[in-house]
Each structure stands twice: as C-alpha cells, then as structure tokens.
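Structure first, sequence second, as always.
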C-alpha cells in the first residue's frame, strides 16, 4: 500500500486535482507517518498563499517540523520568517543561526544568505571577508541573483530577503 505522502503526490498531478484532499493527505502524512517533507510542502503553501490563504504562523509551525525532521531546504525559509517577522517576532540573530545551520547542513540557498548577513551585519558582525567567502561559495553552487539590489562581483547586495524556493509540486 502506498504511503499517505505518495498518495498526496499522486493526487496533486491529476488534471482535476482536489487540493483539499491533497492537503488532508499531507497533514496525515506529517502527523501519522512523521513525514517532515509533507510539513515542508504545507509550509510553502502557507507562505505563498498557494492552495491556502497566506498564513505565516502556520508556515513557521510547519517549517519547524520540517527543520526538526532534517529537511535542509526549510532552514532558509525559516530564516526569512525570523528575519522579517513573518509569523514570529523578528529576530535577526535567530535568522542568521537558521541560515548558518542550513549552510552547514548543505543547503546551498543558505550560502548566499550567510554571505548577505555578513555583508550587512544582519544577526552577526559585519565582515566583508567572510561575506565574500560565502558569496563566492554560493555563486560556485549556482546561487546568484543578478539585479539592482544584489551582490555581483563586489557590487551591492540585497538587504531584504525574499522567498525564492519554488519546487515543482508547489
């Protein structure tokens, strides 16, 4: 028999998908199968207001389950929530620590966030040398956004994070 998570994934790719049943299956998978990936999918849906009304408090609760369950992609999103006070009280130090935990766990999106934090002194002392190391590591791993407020070859770096993780099932 297929897991609840797999049933949800099978359902979500159907032409006439019933998203309420997918959400129910993901909730059951998270609670009954202790599936942190299901929690992460639900968190992203709450963050982006996709399939649900945007609800940052619910997103943070689900992201914490995902992080505790080892979903390394959730560290960056949880850091963004803490940095911007989305669903939690803003705390740049806590945001930095989530970004750092993610980077040390191998979440390449967090490489950029750690570099940005060191560049601007967000949750940590400003240190352009450390920032440069992390930003180069991010760039080497394909994490780079070229725009007016972003770091590109020693240029300015954005000071406000945005959610930028989009998975195919979202």
């Amino acid at each position: 028999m297929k897991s609840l998570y797999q049933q949800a994934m099978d359902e979500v790719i159907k032409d006439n998908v019933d998203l309420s049943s997918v959400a129910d299956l993901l909730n059951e998978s998270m609670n009954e199968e202790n599936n942190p990936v299901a929690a992460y999918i639900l968190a992203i849906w709450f963050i982006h207001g996709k399939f649900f009304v945007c609800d940052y408090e619910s997103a943070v609760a689900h992201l914490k389950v995902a992080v505790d369950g080892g979903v390394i992609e959730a560290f960056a999103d949880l850091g963004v929530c803490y940095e911007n006070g989305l669903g939690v009280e803003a705390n740049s130090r806590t945001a930095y620590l989530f970004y750092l935990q993610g980077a040390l766990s191998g979440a390449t999106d967090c490489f950029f966030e750690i570099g940005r934090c060191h560049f601007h002194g967000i949750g940590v002392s400003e240190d352009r040398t450390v920032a440069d190391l992390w930003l180069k590591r991010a760039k080497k791993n394909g994490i780079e956004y070229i725009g007016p407020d972003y770091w590109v070859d020693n240029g300015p770096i954005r000071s406000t994070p945005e959610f930028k993780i989009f998975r195919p099932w979202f």
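Margin note: The radius of gyration is 17 Å.
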